[in-house]
Each structure stands twice: as structure tokens, then as C-alpha cells.
Design brief:
268 residues, alpha/beta, Arc Repressor Mutant, subunit A, 7 helices
Length: 268
Amino acid sequence: MRIDGSGTLRANCVLCPNPGPMTLDGTNTWVLREPGARGVIVVDPGPHDERHLERVARTVQEQGAQVAVTLLTHHHPDHSDGARYFSELTGAPVRAVEPELRIGGDGLSDGDTVEVDGLQLRVLATPGHTADSLCLHLPADDVVLTGDTVLGAGTTMIADDGLAAYMDSLHRLRELTESAGVRALLPGHGPICTEPRDKLAEYIGHREARLAQITAAVEAGDRTAEEIVARVYAGIEEGVVPAARSSVRAQLRYLAKRGDIPAELGEA
């Protein structure tokens, strides 16, 4: 089974030119098609960048294919803002967890199967990065499209109340990787990960280490998210400080609910 830097037998990436501290090299728009089939599934068309969206549509047309449906892994604008224009270009419906993001299509729920011309995707609810985050298992290629739940490089930000759910999501992905023989993770940003077990172990270990660091910061006298960011995330780029603050708040809530720190600090 082919897995290389550009994708797999059934999944190919069209990179959006929107690089940045939060988007790495840009948003990965995934174009999925069963070999020889006409129908295509597009995952995360990206921001409202008309040239990028037109390039994705042209890529599909040049394959003699047609977009049958667009799926969104979550609501963040760098993944979803281009969906309406892309739907206008292709005539394809847009399916998403959140009703306001759907365009002529159904919702997406855990356990759903999306099938187009013999290609099957299985929907996995993986909240944490956002409440509506999901991953998509492509069994035919032994890969999982992870949106922003797992990135190709670095770690992802967590919604303010999302850490407990996120840890559950990581453990669920690790179990799937082991039970289904997943060979690669196709992220929403960054390169393909061809060592999924190691990546998920690294993510889980990173979160546990961060929780220990934040607990130590509280024990040292820090009481606000800003103080903890200055200590635990010293030296990070200014552009990712808000994300670090959001992550710290999520971890403080998690630790407070678990009883590891005073309850009032869960509102820091």
C-alpha cells in the first residue's frame, strides 16, 4: 500500500498557502477517491482562499472525477470558511457536526459511515481540540484523517473545557491504531505521520508531562493562566501565546475537577 509524503493510494493532499504559527505550512485539504471511481470526497476545503479552492476543484476535474461531498473535521475557519464557495464551485453538499456549517447535507455523528463510489470513511468523534472535532478512518488504506486532533508536527491547542475529552480521544485513537492496524495519520496541518503508535504515545505523554508542570507551577505560587504560561511555556512565539493560555485554562479545569489543585484555580 502506497504511503508517501503526498498521501496514499486513495488520499491526496492539496496544501493551502496559509502558513502560520497555528497552521504550520498551511491547511491540508484531503481529496479522497477509490481508484478508477468518479466520485470524490473532499475533507476540509480550508479558508476562503478562492485560488486554493479553485485549484482543489480543478485537481478533481483533471482526474475525470467529481466532488460528491465535502466533510469538515471541525468548525475552525482555516478548515471550514471556504466550504460555501467550494460548494458553489462543485455543487457538492457539505456535511459537518455543527448544523450551521452544513450546506445541503446531513450531519456527522460518531459511528457514521460515509460512502462514495466504493470508498468508505468511518466517523470517529474525537472532541477536545474543539467540541465538534472528529477524525475519519479510511480502512482501505489503513489510515486515519485526524484534522487538528493530532498534527503532523508539534501539539494542538485544547478547548477551555476539553482536556478530559481530549485525553479520551487520544486513548481511543491509540486503541484504534492497535486494533485496526492503522499505518499512518493524515493530519489537518503538517506532514503525514507514518509512526502512529509512537505519535499517539508522544501526545499522551506530552499532556501528562504538561499536567505535572502546571501542578508544579501552582505549587510554586502561580495563580493565573498568564503566570503559568510565562513559566511553563517560556520562550514561545508571541503568535501562539493565546493558544497556550487556552491550553493552560483547560488543564487547570481538568486538574481542579480531578482534585489535584484548589477548585477555585479551575476558573483562573
